[in-house]
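Sample intake sheet
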Amino acid sequence: MVDLFRRRLLKTGAAATAMAAATSAMGQRAAQGPGESFFEKGPVKLRYQVAGSGFPLLVLPGGGLNSALTGLKNPFDTFGEFQSEYRCIAMDLRNANTGQSSGPIEPDRSWDSHADDQLALLDHLGVKKFAVMGFCIGGPFIWNLLKRAPDRVAAAVIAQPVGFRPEMPDVLYDVGKAWAVDFLKRRPDVSADTVDRYVTKMFRTNADFVFTVTRDFVRSCQTPVLILPDDVPPHPLAVAMESAMLAPKSEVSLYPWKQPPERIPIAVRQIKSFLKAHRPAST
């Protein structure tokens, strides 16, 4: 993988560097959407969006390592559905090619670096207790938040989560490699070896179950969790259902919940009922 990246970078040469510089300049000049702001902590710069009022709801869009604000309407308009009752918060993942957040690549603590960003943003916004709803890669992110800050999460909605599929062990690693090719074009300051170690740590080093926590942790988790399963190569149904069976305070949506599309409003109603049932009374 590293040799492949180096060959690509050598082939593009100065053109790739120029493209990266131009892209960075355009990103700095890009107009912000409604409610969008930037937060900086050390070398990390995060673009985020806040809308609505009420109990805080952190929304983690899908898209793998390209998780960004652009994904907030897939598979449904999360802010549009929830901002009338919740203070909705979302951000571009650090270094997503489709976003404007940036920062170091931390190959030895890849999952935790993103949990750092999520918790730092909530601290910046003065949020202590919150609910969280995540799609795709948001599944492992949520389990990591439940491990890192269990007393802060009131309830969690895990939709179409990624997980380890034994019959396709490299499906998520390959998705990470695809992200890395475009990232290295934008960031010639980062070595291909560093990026390879980062993606390997995420999807190969602890390649089992939901990547960020063990089955024993899920068994012990006392946070209410609603799981909306999916079944495409990166989103194995077996992992979603095993999580639901292990978690002592879990609920599961109808399945499939996205097809036909007429089922999506039913799933949204269930999410709303679930979050309302577990929203702290003081809010």
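Comment: The longest strand covers residues 44-51. The domain at 37-183+206-277 is CATH 3.40.50.1820 (Rossmann fold).
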